[in-house]
Amino acid sequence: MRREDELLQRMEQGDTRAADELIEMFYPEILRYCLWHAPNRFLAEDAAQETFLKVIRYFDRYTHKGRFKAFLYRIAANTCIDMQRKNRHTEVSLEEAALDPAYSDPAFEAIRADLTVKQLVSRLPKDLQEIILLRYGQDLTIREIAEILNLPHGTVQSRLRSALKKLKAEIVLQEEGAVYRKKGGLL
Length: 187
Prior knowledge:
Layout (H helix, E strand, L loop, with lengths): L2 H10 L3 H22 L3 H17 L10 H19 L7 H6 L8 H15 L3 H12 L4 H8 L3 H30 L5
Helix pairs in contact: 1-2, 2-3, 2-4, 3-4, 4-8, 7-9, 8-9
């Protein structure tokens, strides 16, 4: 029996320590997921915490069939959607970050790269964004993504290929634009 299955079984029996362990097990990946959907870390942390509160609150409605992760991610996705509706904050653009001297710290380069990826992904249709996030941001398998999104395996595969193709085209366009700007507007 997997650790997750054991903890879920203990939770069904009313063991609150099992719930704590389950939260500890999944919190980092749910927080990482929420960070992609939230305009700042504070709201992402709130969304992650709210996700686990909802899991505990609605646990009696969950029937364990080996798909707890899909159940957890659906709750996280819905929580993030609700959070976005309530909090319409603007994000810092790459251009604004480049102008702010506080962002010139070398440690910020990794964050800048993440922002670049996030901006590229944000240009995709919502359904493709979610598949890219779950596959590469959360390192989930195609099968897990299919369960989370309630889609056929083949649909997830084709959408993933489509998203990657669009991202590649966008990167090529950006690189061509950078070369164009670097040469003073001449190709």
